[in-house]
Amino acid sequence: MRSRKRIIRTAVICIVFFALSYFALYLPFYKFPPESYGTSLKKIFSVEYIKTLIPLFIITGVSVIGIALVIFIRNKLLNKNGRDISRYSSRGKGKAPRQKPAVFMIVRWVIMVLFSFMMIWGGLLFGLRSTNISLPIFSCPANNVQMTETSCYFLSHPKDLFTELPIKNIIIFFVSTLLFIILLGRVMCGFLCPMGLVQDIMDKIRKKTKTKGITPNEKMYAAFKPIKWFMILLFFGIGFIGGNFCNFCPAITVSPILAGIGVSLYVSGFLMILILIGSFFKRRLFCNICPLGYLVGLFHKISPFRIKKDCTACTECGACYEACPMGIKTIYTEREKADVTEANCIMCGECIKCCPEDNALSLTCAGKKLYTASRKNVMSGYASKKNEVEI
Amino acid sequence: MITSSRDRERKERQDKRFINKETQTSAKYLRRIEELSGAPSGMRPFLDTLRRIYVEMKGIDIPQTEKTIGTYCVMVPQELIYAAGAVPVKLCSGNYTAFFIGDDIAPRDACPLVKAVAGFKHTGLMPVYEKCSMMIVPVTCDCKKKIAGMLGNYCDVMTMHIPTTKGDDDIDEYVSQLYDFCARLEHATGNKITYDSLAEAFHKTGRAQYELSEFIRLKKQMPYLIRGTHAMTIMNAAAYMPAEVWADALRSVNMSLSIRAMKGEKITNKKLPRILLTGSPIVYPNVKIPLLIEEMGGIVAGDETCMGERGMWDPPVITDNSFDGMIRALANRSIRPCPCPTFADNTQRIYRLKQLIKENQIQGVIYHVLRGCLVYDFEYKRIEDELGKLDVPVIRLESDYNEEDVEQLRIRIEAFIELIKLRQPPEKRSEDSREL
Ligand code: SF4
Ligand code: SF4
Ligand code: SF4
Ligand code: SF4
């Protein structure tokens, strides 16, 4: 009974997604006049730039309202059960214990922000361009002044790939995409992708406001799976039946518009609102259904970046699973294998940050440990300086 | 009228006898712990706490206005109790005198721990029990379930359902129980649990856990740094001390231990057989087994019991700093890392044991089973098999809350220690004898 409900729900979502993406052109979110497609350094320093940003303001505004609404409704629902639970969601001024920021995490954020910044404005500000090399991340190449090309456009428009590009570029496209997939793998998701950054920022805001999120649950992740597969189908297939994935893709709202390019938004705008609201409550919601990430993840077995586990040190406390934005459970349940890298792992290091057992988890690159779990780090929020007993 | 006064007299006589016997046994075991050589400096507060509770028969050392909440087992998050402005006290009991009284109340096959609890509550003489505003009983076995009902006749009791598996839904369910627990606590203490008070409570217990991890790190780093009985005394005393006080006291023990380690001092130069104690809870004053092991020339180098490391080792890891996130961290910490045999599949206990064996260079395992403690007894077989594969000798010691079985235990422990000594590599033995 339950599973039938789930199938129906999934099917409905898939059909809606399909209809939305197929008829996306008829559902404009914000239309720019055709002549605004273009940008220059002068443009992003002029008032006109603000005008280009209008759709972003709308998206942010609606998302904020949406989030507030969700919280409001949730509190109402919680109280309805007769138990006054929402009262506990009061924020307070106190601080929940927080560990000292780990170097790895700082590096990750710096890279993420810097890379996205360079990707979007780097070309304009510093003239950095190497347009033919393609990275498989969701940084929209509709921003044609981007620092470098990304693979998503041609992956989702395979027809154009062979009709529009000279043969040399096709080869560069394939070689660079494959090279990045193999060399970096989903590290790109954790470190480079602007869509990932946007979602992580939403999560940071939630944590700053001490708002309750959605807790990980296998059922939820199981529900993501078919939707993800359907997204993959859409991503690769919609071009063949006359649709255009770009009118549906939420990533288009980030890079081009920020770079001052007036690209008209269709379903993308609505979808982005949903994703912003969703990733506020569930960290990296879109990454869980991202077709590109899935493609990169397929090659995880040969990526040099690995999550290693010392199973003898683990106490099965489950903290890593609770922390993982991608819902990877084996990382907590595994008791035999030393390698717990999964296709879904975006190398964000959250699990390592939360693991209280020395050495139990580590992120390695070609055998070198980059980040290792340590009790000291986890407990660092509790120890005052005078408490350090050293030998 | 006359009968009632006669009754009262009889009750008074009984009570006096109870108090006499109780304080005598407790004092005796305390003395035996004190007589063991090699106690680190800084042990005093722990011994004093045990003396205060069991020999002087006073409540725990907190201001009169503060309330205490009684808990059983390790699954009740202490943080919530601190957040409600009360002090938790662990009521699992190891008392022989109370056990004799409980023997008449509870069925013959019930476990002695539960009988002792019933006995204490029945006499109404122990301040730690009497002062509790509420008791929380996680239902980890049938005996705990029934004792919850029994205690309900005397005071406010809340039972907590412990899931049998550790899936996501079980954690969700436990989270919702913790919310109920919050409400009950607020009712019992009259204080509100807020984000701030809970965060504050996390800091309190977190410090204690920090000190504990330092303690264990030191212990692991250097074998023979401290006797297991002393370590167990420290852990037992935690049940009756507010977390900050305990953390401060443990800090000074850690200091003295690290000085010891620096100087390379050990409690002994001999290679005493290193024994891991696991199984049913070992609660003061029922410390006859660790005492016997150490008096017979072994050393308790690790323990995997409820009153020991198990309950406090794993910190609640906050992955989401909302109020709900903190509650979830507590639920997660209470259920997932806990290798209690109440869970249907408890393979993780075997891993935990292997881990302890490796870390503490254990040479033999003593599996303690309280008479009537079925869940632990069930797991013995599997653990014996698994440890057999590692070539670590194991024995099962069944005991009860009385002193009648001491001689028999002594013989078996002695034989076990001799067995380990025989298994030690010969060159080490010759080194030993040279020293002797
Ligand atoms: S809209 Fe999406 S799929 Fe299309 S080019 Fe931009 S990022 Fe790629
Ligand atoms: S999974 Fe997330 S981070 Fe990776 S490409 Fe997709 S959107 Fe970007
Ligand atoms: S397994 Fe660890 S590194 Fe990978 S996605 Fe999950 S939390 Fe991030
Ligand atoms: S956080 Fe560390 S100790 Fe806990 S389950 Fe994960 S790997 Fe094991």
Short description:
With 391 residues, chain A is mainly alpha-helical. Chain A is 50% helix and 6% strand. Residues 385-391 of chain A have low confidence and may be disordered.
* Residue-averaged pLDDT of chain A: 86
The portion of residues forming beta strands of chain B comes to 5-15%
Give the tally of β-strands of chain A: 5
* Widest beta sheet: strand line-up of chain B: 2-1-3-4
Question: Number of DSSP strands of chain B?
Answer: 8
Q: Please give the alpha-carbon distance between the first and last residues of chain A.
A: 61 Å
Low-confidence stretches of chain B: 427-436
Query: What fraction strand of chain A?
Result: 5-15%
Radius of gyration of chain B: 22 Å
Work out the largest interface and the residue count of each chain: A-B, 53 and 63 residues
- Compute the gyration radius of chain A: what is it? 22 Å
Q: How would a textbook summarize the main sheet of chain B?
A: 4 strands, parallel
Q: What is the overall shape of chain A? A: globular
Provide an overview of this structure.
The complex is a heterodimer of chains A (391) and B (436). Chain A folds into 2 domains: 2-296, no CATH class; 304-390, Alpha-Beta Plaits (2-Layer Sandwich). Chain A is 50% helix and 6% strand. Chain A contains 17 helices and 5 strands. In chain A, helix 3 (47-80) crosses helix 12 (267-281) and helix 9 crosses helix 12. Chain A is globular, with a radius of gyration of 22 Å. Chain B is α/β, with parallel strands linked by helices and 436 residues long. Chain B has one domain (6-434). Helix content of chain B is 58%, strand content 11%. Chain B is built from 18 helices and 8 strands. Chain B has a 4-stranded parallel beta sheet with strand order 2-1-3-4, sandwiched between helices. Chain B has a 4-stranded parallel beta sheet with strand order 6-5-7-8, with helices on both faces. In chain B, helix 3 (78-83) links the parallel strand 1 and strand 2 (87-90). Chain B is globular and about 60 Å long. The model of chain B is unreliable at 427-436 (pLDDT under 50). Bound molecules: iron/sulfur cluster (SF4) (4 copies). One iron/sulfur cluster is lined by residues 309, 314-320, 332, 354-355, 357, 360-361, 373 of chain A.
